[in-house]
Amino acid sequence: MAYIERAISSILKKRASESKCLLLTGARQVGKSTLLKHQFADYNRVSFDDKMTRMQAKEEPKLFFLNNPRPLFIDEVQKENSILEDVKLLIDESEERGQFIFSGSQKLELMKGMSESLAGRVSVMELSGLSLREIKGVHFNKHFVPTDEYLKEREKELADYDDIWEIIHKGSYPELYDVDRDWQDYYSSYVDTYLERDINELIAADSITFFKFLTAVAARTGEILNYANIASDVGVSEPTIKNWISILERTGIVFLLQPYSSSALSRAIKTPKIYFRDTGLACYLTRWLTADALKNSAVTGNMFETFVVSEILKTYSNEGIDYRFSIFYYRGKDKTSSRENEIDLVIEENGVLYPVEIKMTGNPKAIMGGANAVLDKIPDKKRGLGVVLCLTDKKMYLRENLVALPISYI
């Protein structure tokens, strides 16, 4: 099986050398264990997927650490995070860096254990599925923000994405690019083996109800989250759906994009939008079985938007940056009319707000940035260059402060 070089690698090694311990989170099968084994081959390694190993770590931690000396990589650490108290004692005895590396697929459970036991001692990073840059061998590794500096740097290493619908449909799990694996077989196994097994430890539901829930959420990727709507489809209570959505977010299956909040935008919607982190999984759950069928379907716009949002998030996490405080969306009504304005993404950086529209068109128009002026109402913030990310084949200015970009610029 060929190893695909991951963009996060150099930053991961740097963080490990600077911190006493490092935590790499991410959904199942995005390549955490493979990455860490390649980059830290000199580390001893154990996995808490193994029950006997977990039992020893829980009941005889001193013996566990004698059998598994530092530097140590513990995979799926959330399955027995009581060990973190003992880790704290060990790392406090030494100033040595890079003593422990942890990985796991249940982000907030891990963070809870880390915040209670290892506050200030652990560096946290996130690994997503393969990015377009990784799939195409592009080495540029800066997060997407449409400044002049970013655009000039990005233009030095652009790649053609002429098979974009094949990639959107295929998804981003590394195994699909490592070996010639049947698409339906892979995702069927993924749902059965990983999602039902791992998430059913957290969700008390029979497999049919759970699959209905996954399908109902996948069918709404790219939409404003409506718990009541999903609850009606699945046949469970709204509080149950809220809990289950939270679990999907914690395990890296979905992302909740928060609305931009400002007192100046008093009529803005306060509800998040929901996106699947992997478009291949969303296609499988909603039964779009070929790239051609997807491309010509009624969901192409939402799936394209889901893909672009996911790619932008990857540019942040692969650079070791927390995107949660930088990327939002806006939807609201203008006080002077009943018209609703929407901006697909609002990227905030250094006091500047960059409006981004995501359009599945090869013929972008200036009107697509018509809502951007609403950001001028926000005090103490400047509006930066607006962007229309679309299927155009070249960069094209639509107005002085609005540019259409091919998605190769992400």
Taking the sheet with the most strands, its summary is: 7 strands, mixed
Number of helices: 17
Tally of individual domains: 2
Q: Helix share of residues? A: 25-40%
* Integer-rounded radius of gyration: 22 Å
Mean pLDDT reading: 92
Outline the low-pLDDT stretches. none
Number of strands: 15
Distance between the termini: 28 Å
Principal-axis shape equals globular
Overall structural class, as computed from helix and strand content, comes to alpha/beta
Strand content: 15-25%
Task: Describe the structure in your own words.
With about 400 residues, the chain is of the alpha/beta class. It folds into 2 domains: about 10-125, Rossmann fold (3-Layer(aba) Sandwich); about 130-410, no CATH class. It contains 17 helices and 15 strands. It has helices at about 10-20, 30-40, 50-60, 60-65, 85-90, 105-115, 130-135, 150-155, 165-170, 175-180, 185-200, 205-220, 225-235, 240-250, 280-285, 290-295, 300-315, and strands at about 20-25, 45, 70-75, 100-105, 120-125, 225, 255, 275, 325-335, 340-350, 350-360, 380-385, 385-390, 395-400, 400-405. Strands 9, 10, 11, 12, 13, 14 and 15 form a 7-stranded mixed β-sheet that branches.
How would you sum up this structure in a few lines?
The protein is α/β, with parallel strands linked by helices and 410 residues long.
